[in-house]
Design a protein that fits this description.
12% strand; alpha+beta; single chain
C-alpha cells in the first residue's frame, strides 16, 4: 500500500523492489488469495529482507520470538 503509517507491522519498499513509488507491505492486514488471481508482476522482496518481514509479522501476530529479528 502507499499509505505509510510507520508502524512496526510494515516493511518499506520502493524502486529497488521494482515498485514505481515508495510503499509498504502491511502485515497488519494479511489476505490469502489464490495464486491464479494474480495477473501482473509488480515487484519482489529480496531474500536479504525476509527477516524484516518476519519481524513485522511478529508484531502483527503478537509473536514475541519474531519481534526481535
Amino acid at each position: 500500500t502507499s499509505t505509510i503509517r510507520h508502524i512496526p507491522q510494515e516493511v518499506t519498499l520502493g524502486k529497488p523492489e521494482g515498485l514505481r513509488d515508495q510503499s509498504v507491505v502491511n502485515f497488519d492486514s494479511i489476505h490469502v488469495i489464490p495464486k491464479t488471481s494474480l495477473n501482473e508482476y509488480v515487484g519482489a522482496i529480496p531474500a536479504r529482507r525476509y527477516s524484516e518481514c518476519k519481524r513485522a509479522r511478529g508484531y502483527a501476530l503478537d509473536w514475541p520470538e519474531l519481534k526481535v529479528l
